[in-house]
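Support request, please re-run this one:
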Amino acid sequence: MAERKELREVLVQTCDFCEDETKHLSKCAICEREGCGGEGGTRHFAYAIEIYEYGTGKRNVNGHICKECIAKNQTMALTKFTSSLLNR
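Re-run finished. Output below.
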């Protein structure tokens, strides 16, 4: 059986933290830098928070906080994040 190669266009984005190329990036809710999901998302992010609505199971909020923002000031980062949730 002959091997067949197909070429297709794929949007590639660059991680703001490690500069790796990837198809999907997640944005930090504090500094708004975009990071890859390397190592199950733990390479660049300290927290991933999802909020679902009771009854329907509808996801209302999905957010990430990078390790650099947490390292600067954990309390301030979490306060800013929760404030942004209330403003959505």
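DSSP finds two helices and six strands in the chain. The CA atoms of residues 12 and 23 lie 5 Å apart.
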